[in-house]
């Protein structure tokens, strides 16, 4: 008997019915009277570098914090790979395939680079970080964790730095370690909060290459970034926030030409009126 269904089924194996990785609908985060994120909806497609841009204080970091569960959403929903994660715990979102880096680098500066990358994975492996020290099965898992961490350091070009103390590295190299740590958790969607901030042009160029290589691994990227050369050169899609609201979205050339975006960045009329009411 033949099995005619198999060939078509394999093409879609492991993916949902569409190519949507993340869908947010009417998402809001208010801090008292401050509407940091206010009724924002957008969709991130698989294989895209989707940038989220906007002036300082427009709600970009808050968006990442709500997506990862560091903050509870005030309203709205977050759907990752077809699954509603709006109310799930941060570590369950990591298990579901969400990873991030922070606007302010968060590494254990007195620990070696390798340990910093391994620590990220322990939220995903069965053994907690401290149990690794005592149990044989945890130690075995630890070897796999170590291999993976070394692989990810190689991937970001930091393979030679694994035994160095994180705190001794340049800012740009610390950023790469953070990215390796996030990648080691095996994300479907990687959220990066201003990864180019504080980087020199050479480091930014290196970051650009790393981001492109990440997408080649079928990892989707949401990039929050102020470096417009990087953003405009690398993004498939851009969403623009201003005062917590989405004011534009589209391909880089569309967004760059959008009068709302230009006025938000130049701080002309509209933006100043809003500010005065704020
Ligand atoms: P961006 O990352 O775009 O610069 P943020 O998301 O950091 O902007 O901030 C958006 C707004 O939310 C700002 O007005 C900021 O002061 C406010 N905000 C952010 N986090 C908090 C918080 N934990 N408590 C109160 N207000 C906050
Ligand atoms: Mg920010």
Number of helices: 11
Strand content: 15-25%
Order of helices and strands: HEEEHEEHEHHHEHEHEEHHH
Task: Indicate the overall shape.
Answer: globular
Give the total of beta strands.
10
Estimated helix fraction: 25-40%
The N- and C-terminal alpha carbons lie at a distance of 70 Å
Largest sheet: 6 strands, mixed
Oligomer: single chain
Rg value: 20 Å
SS-based class: alpha/beta
How would you characterize this protein structure?
By secondary structure, the chain is α/β, with parallel strands linked by helices. It has eleven helices and ten strands. The protein has helices spanning 6-12, 60-68, 90-95, 113-121, 136-155, 171-183, 201-216, 228-234, 252-256, 259-266, 269-277; strands at 20-31, 34-45, 49-53, 75-80, 83-84, 98-101, 189-193, 220-224, 237-242, 245-250. The strands form two sheets. Strands 6-7-8-3-9-10 form a six-stranded mixed β-sheet, sandwiched between helices. Strands 2-1-4-5 form a four-stranded antiparallel β-sheet, with helices on one face. A hairpin with a 2-residue loop joins β4 (75-80) and β5. It is globular, with a radius of gyration of 20 Å. Residues 1-17 and 269-278 have low confidence and may be disordered. The structure holds adenosine-5'-diphosphate and magnesium ion (MG). Magnesium ion (MG) binds at residues 60-61, 103.
Main features:
278 residues, alpha/beta, 6-stranded mixed β-sheet, 4-stranded antiparallel β-sheet, 11 helices, globular, disordered N terminus, binds adenosine-5'-diphosphate
Helices and strands in order, then pairings?
Layout lengths: L5 H7 L7 E12 L2 E12 L3 E5 L6 H9 L6 E6 L2 E2 L5 H6 L2 E4 L11 H9 L14 H20 L15 H13 L5 E5 L7 H16 L3 E5 L3 H7 L2 E6 L2 E6 L1 H5 L2 H8 L2 H9 L1
Parallel strand pairs: 3-8, 3-9, 6-7, 7-8
Antiparallel strand pairs: 1-2, 1-4, 4-5, 9-10
Helix pairs in contact: 4-5, 4-6, 5-6
The site of magnesium ion has 3 residues, from helix 2.
